[in-house]
Specification:
Number of helices: 22
Radius of gyration: 25 Å
Helix content: over 70%
Order of helices and strands: HHHHHHHHEEHHHHHHHHHHHHHH
Largest sheet: 2 strands, antiparallel
Structural class: mainly alpha
Number of strands: 2
Strand order of the largest sheet: 1-2
Strand content: under 5%
Length: 575
């Protein structure tokens, strides 16, 4: 009863606590020391720059090519799916630049959660972190189900559902139980609980073999394919420019994984050098491989005959290379394991840091003293991922993943501009906030005109507004480069401000608006759920944690003051 009455009292204090906590920010020094120590033990710094490149590449490759290329080529982009990958890659590259500057300035494991909390306050950090976690868990579940499809081809089966168990009493799209996917997730969870470095070495080995395997598919596709398939039956872009851009929004799902490198910041030996190479390098390598793989698929088979499931294995079957289909199934399965390993590595670090902030139960923040890994967070998220992978088809969640990812990357780009101009540059916040509002508004208007197929002059009008707003802000609110160089001494930072993050904001808004209405409905429900959790639990937990730390700080000061007085009394008595 006492606990229940205390909770009801806390709820009665909700408005006061929201005012105090929602926009509460932390300094990098507090994040490094005070907050990080809540995990008990520190994570062990064992990773080098090539580990980060391998983690980023391994995390992205298996997800994109083997899950999204076939469906997008069939339904959205046609043979021009490689253009969709280029557009999504440019957006991912711009977002990765924003991540990189934050990562070298604040090398902690929280990724977007930490960057947003330091810049805009606790609630925005929590909202971004919750969306990143949703994206990780759902995408890992979807990818694990694809593993079952490709593994069946590796063993010579022609039906991708052969190893799934159909339950007739469950609704459609939830009635194919996937036990191999569950077994894979649980096995990787045990591996990640053991050690980060050993998991990284395993990923590095798998990624090297995976890239070699990609080379085989690319060469085989070009040798056995035909350029005529790129233009038959309805041209290179049968769905037009709109189809290419709609496809770009969906294949953005393929770039989930590069931000995993930023969550490894506490485990990197030289974060200032390794993080920029790891984050940006992995995006560039992956974009090149995606485009070549997409071209290979569309050259082998006309786009309207591409299989929606296990696309590459089915393509080799259709050209008569049945033995290659088995190899593709095995290689794709290996790539999916590598991407799952990296993604599950990253998701546990996100949850660990959110637990440090006391926005979720604090036992999720504990780092095991002997392995140096966030054990509780790894096990908890492994269980959640396995539960979703058991039931849910990829189609249900893929667009929800894309909208959540784009929203977080949009928020990080806004945070970078605000941090550079207001927190570091010392300019009035109103100017920067007004710029960010106008930029987002005009980007939204441009996207709406495009989505609803309005007059072409609307695109020119709002496109011109976007360029004018960025140029005017750059001229009227200049960024003091000397001050930036002093603040960011020996650190990497984004050049040509504010253009790269501004273009990232525009592209993220534009790609979000190309998604279906159902995606926004599901995202709205998810947003309501996480907001209610913050109001009913998170804000009270962080408020109480701050009170306890303030009280312990006061007690420590009192003790420090009392010790010299006691020594003085002793000295007087001796004399």
């Amino acid at each position: 009863m006492t606990m229940l009455s205390n909770y009801f009292y806390s709820l009665s204090q909700t408005p006061h606590r929201l005012r105090k906590r929602m926009l509460a920010t932390w300094t990098p020094d507090q994040e490094f020391n005070q907050v990080r120590h809540r995990s008990g033990a520190d994570m062990k710094r064992k990773l080098n720059w090539y580990d980060l490149v391998a983690l980023g590449v391994g995390g992205m490759l298996g997800v994109g090519v083997f899950v999204t290329t076939g469906p997008v080529a069939l339904h959205q982009s046609g043979p021009s799916v490689f253009m969709s990958y280029i557009i999504a890659g440019i957006s991912a590259l711009l977002s990765s630049l924003c991540y990189t500057e934050f990562a070298v300035q604040v090398p902690v494991a929280g990724g977007a959660f930490s960057y947003l909390r330091l810049t805009f306050g606790e609630f925005f950090g929590y909202f971004g972190g919750a969306n990143i976690l949703m994206e990780y868990v759902f995408s890992n579940a979807a990818v694990a189900r694809s593993f079952t499809e490709y593994l069946s081809f590796a063993f010579g089966e022609k039906n991708p559902n052969v190893w799934r168990v159909e339950v007739h009493g469950l609704p459609k799209d939830y009635n194919m139980l996937d036990f191999p996917a569950v077994a894979l997730i649980l096995l990787l969870t045990l591996c990640l609980c053991h050690s980060t470095k050993e998991s990284s070495i395993l990923n590095l080995i798998m990624t090297v073999f995976h890239v070699i395997f990609f080379g085989f598919i690319i060469v085989a596709g070009y040798c056995n394919g035909s350029a005529k398939n790129m233009v038959n039956p309805k041209g290179i872009a049968p769905y037009g420019v709109r189809g290419v851009l709609d496809g770009a929004a969906i294949v953005y799902f393929s770039y989930i994984g590069y931000d995993s490198a930023s969550t490894m910041a506490e485990e990197v030996k030289d974060p200032y050098k390794s993080l920029p190479i790891g984050i940006v390098g992995s995006v560039l390598i992956t974009t090149l491989l995606y485009c070549l793989m997409a071209l290979s698929l569309c050259m082998m088979v006309p786009y309207n005959k591409i299989s929606e499931k296990a696309s590459y294995s089915m393509a080799f079957l259709k050209i008569g290379w049945s033995w290659t289909s088995n190899i593709v199934g095995a290689g794709a399965s290996l790539g999916i394991v590598a991407s799952l390993l990296v993604a599950m590595l990253g998701q546990a670090r996100y949850l660990c840091v959110i637990g440090r902030a006391r926005l979720v139960p604090s036992w999720l923040a504990k780092v095991h003293p002997s392995t140096g890994t966030p054990l509780n967070a790894t096990i908890f998220l492994g269980f959640c991922t396995a539960s979703i992978a058991l039931f849910t088809e990829l189609d249900i969640i893929i667009e929800l993943i894309s909208i959540g990812t784009l929203m977080v990357f949009y928020m990080v780009a806004n945070a970078l501009i605000y941090r550079r101009y207001v927190i570091t540059g010392g300019t009035p916040p109103l100017h920067t906030l007004l710029f960010l509002f106008l930029l987002s508004l005009t980007s939204l208007c441009f996207s709406i005109v495009w989505k609803f197929k309005q007059q072409w002059w609307g695109l020119l009008l709002f496109g011109g507004f976007i360029i004018t707003i960025i140029a005017f802000f750059q001229h009227m609110v200049p960024c003091d480069n000397n001050l930036v160089q002093q603040q960011y001494a020996h650190c990497w930072y984004v050049p040509f401000m504010p253009w790269p993050p501004s273009m990232s904001i525009f592209l993220n808004v534009f790609l979000m608006m190309t998604l279906k209405t159902l995606s926004f409905q599901r995202f709205a429900l998810w947003s309501c759920f996480i907001t209610m959790f913050y109001v009913l639990y998170g804000v009270h937990s962080t408020y109480q944690a701050e009170e306890i730390e303030n009280l312990s700080g006061v007690n420590q000061v009192v003790m420090n003051l009392s010790v010299p007085n006691l020594q003085t009394k002793v000295e007087i008595q001796v004399h």
